[in-house]
Design a protein that fits this description.
This protein is α+β, with helices and mostly antiparallel strands. 37% of the residues lie in helices and 18% in strands. Helix 1 packs antiparallel against helix 7 and helix 4 runs antiparallel to helix 6.
Length: 235
């Protein structure tokens, strides 16, 4: 994936990214004062941590924005403790947004349950984000929307309540803004990878092919991103 040139982004977007970065740092500050971190807050009171289980139980959902997320672990990549999956449910999408046509055998979620996966956020054992990645459909059992529609959903993701943790909900909502350029790039790459895979694997349901799990990954660093935004704003 090509390096993103922040200097070409609209100033309004850069200012939103800078504000999101400040909110993320404030979340780290208030959690750190109590010896807490993002991951620990999500796992708090949830009992023993098991791979593939969703944390917290029943996911986190905002009934007003129809945004949703959960934390879990199942990948074996070095330095990853687990990751967040973020979603927007159908009722929170722009009017007219529809999944892509599908004639395979798998049943996709329908109607109000036709949620879209937005992006996943890899976390380390200290509770800090280390990367972003996009996935194939079967990984999250979503309805599949084309990248341009998913990108339009990013502005609508917001967890605006205090369960299971107000700092975590502020943090994950702000992450979608601070790293918006990388998320957009990963979503566009996702569609390109899936289309290429379908062409080179005829007769296979690309959305259900277990040989294709991740469609793209990019390492991230919050402080570096904030610094890059500040530089772009100063030019």
């Amino acid at each position: 994936m090509e390096t993103i040139d922040f200097t070409v982004l609209p100033r309004e977007q850069l200012e939103l990214m800078a504000d999101a970065g400040a909110r993320i740092l404030e979340c780290y500050r208030v959690l750190g004062k109590a010896g807490l971190n993002i991951v620990g807050e999500v796992l708090k009171g949830q009992g023993e941590f098991y791979e593939l289980e969703h944390y917290p139980n029943d996911d986190v959902f905002d009934a007003d924005t129809h945004s949703q997320y959960y934390y879990h672990a199942h990948r074996t990549e070095a330095n990853e403790h687990g990751h967040f999956h973020t979603f927007l449910r159908q009722s929170g999408m722009l009017e007219g947004a529809q999944p892509v046509p599908y004639d395979g055998e798998e049943t996709w979620p329908q109607g109000a349950d036709a949620l879209s996966h937005l992006i996943a956020i890899s976390m380390d054992a200290y509770g800090f984000p280390t990367g972003l990645f996009a996935t194939n459909r079967w990984v999250t059992a979503e309805a599949w929307y084309k990248a341009e529609d998913v990108i339009s959903m990013l502005d609508r993701f917001d967890i605006d309540h205090a369960w299971p943790s107000w700092p975590v909900n502020i943090w994950i909502s702000a992450m979608m803004v601070l790293f918006r350029p990388q998320i957009e790039a990963l979503l566009c790459q996702r569609d390109e990878v899936v289309a290429s895979w379908a062409r080179t694997h005829p007769g296979v349901d690309v959305f259900e092919d277990r040989m294709l799990e991740l469609t793209g990954f990019i390492p991230i660093d919050v402080k570096q991103q904030i610094g890059a935004v500040a530089v772009a704003l100063s030019t």
